[in-house]
Prior knowledge:
By secondary structure, the chain is α+β, with helices and mostly antiparallel strands. It is built from 4 helices and 6 strands. Helix 1 (4-13) packs across helix 3.
Amino acid sequence: MSSPPTARLRSICLALPEAAEKEAWGDPTFRVRDKIFAMEKRGDGRISLWCKAPPGSQAILVGADPENFFVPPYVGHKGWIGVRLDRKPDWAEIATLIRRSYCLTAPKKLVALLPDEASK
């Protein structure tokens, strides 16, 4: 049975077109056409989400709330953001971050299937 944060992440991620879950490095990763757009990490004493972020977002989020946002190892230099899930996460904000990450990763045809993106 999965933990509550994992279940919430799974629900958000797998609702996106062609999203799939695959375990990697001992943690769940969420992918679209085998490209990772989000992953749950359980290392270094915390539970967190790592996801892609638009240019400049990482510095803004970490600067505004360093208790909940951080630069993750390995992918942080590519602009990814880490979000603490072991506190009281704002799930609406997390859903927005995941959706943005998906849009940065997925092919345009899949992004166009999202309700808000179809009109763009």
